Amino acid sequence: xHLWWIDPSYPADxxxxxxxxxxxxxxxxxxxxxxxxxxxxxxxxxxxxxxxxPPEVKRxxxxxxxxxxxxLDVVWKVIKxxxxxxxxxxxxIERLENEIRASMGHMYAEWTIxxxxxxxxxxxxxxxxYEIVQAHISQDDWRPSNVPALxxxxxxxxxxxxxxxxxxxxxxxxxxxxxxHNGEIWESIVDxxxxxxxxxxxxxx
Length: 205
What we know:
- By secondary structure, the chain is an alpha+beta fold.
- The protein has two helices and 13 strands; from the N terminus they run E-E-H-E-E-E-H-E-E-E-E-E-E-E-E.
- It has helices at residues 31-39, 85-104; strands at residues 2-6, 18-24, 43-45, 61-67, 74-80, 116-117, 122-125, 128-132, 136-137, 151-153, 178-181, 184-188, 202-204.
- Strand 4 (61-67) and strand 5 form a beta hairpin.
């Protein structure tokens, strides 16, 4: 059995759930101490109690495990909080990048069917920029987002693009490439990098 501690700063919610503060796993060889903890509202739960996967959170959110002292049901709850300084900076940068991207998007022509595109040209499609990597005449079933053999995501000079899963050697990331992934900036430390940042071949900046 495990002893689950409640967080005294969070009262029970309307359904009777309490926020878990921690887990005590030491042997319970002091009955008086155990009785005292249980009297304070801590709860004994089975050591093999299954806990669901936590949900994803956004900036300004934390996730905490709550349980019901009587039924021992377990739920995750997302808790709103003020943005941390680094989150405020990241949000401001993201907002500025979006404004710059929106202001510069009109510089590139919208992708159109029936156009003879040359290597190196840039077009706009579905609010994103794409560079032509193989000369061709565009057609309906060769849209930029679906045909990596003809188009690749284009990033303005000085801008760090979001990481996109490469589909082959033609769009793998070179040594030294910078990308954004899960709110962090990563540099490729290998050539022909097709792995996700955080798995292999990347170093967080």
